[in-house]
Amino acid sequence: MSRHELYADDGTVEREECPRCGDSFLADHGDRQHCGKCGYTEWE
Predict the structure, then answer these.
(1) Could you give the CA distance from residue 29 to residue 44 in angstroms, rounded to a whole number?
(2) Which UniProt keywords apply (predicted)?
(3) Is 6 part of any domain?
(4) Is 38 assigned to a binding site?
(5) Is residue 27 a part of any domain in this protein?
(6) Is 35 annotated as a binding residue?
């Protein structure tokens, strides 16, 4: 994945906020999304 795939046409970045923390973003690891701050994980 190139980093250009992360940007929308208007230049913004789509990211999901952590539902537990609320002040950090979830990292996309392909099969899961993970919060590095609190450890919350969503499996796909």
Answers:
(1) 10
(2) Metal-binding, Ribonucleoprotein, Ribosomal protein, Zinc, Zinc-finger
(3) no
(4) yes
(5) yes
(6) yes
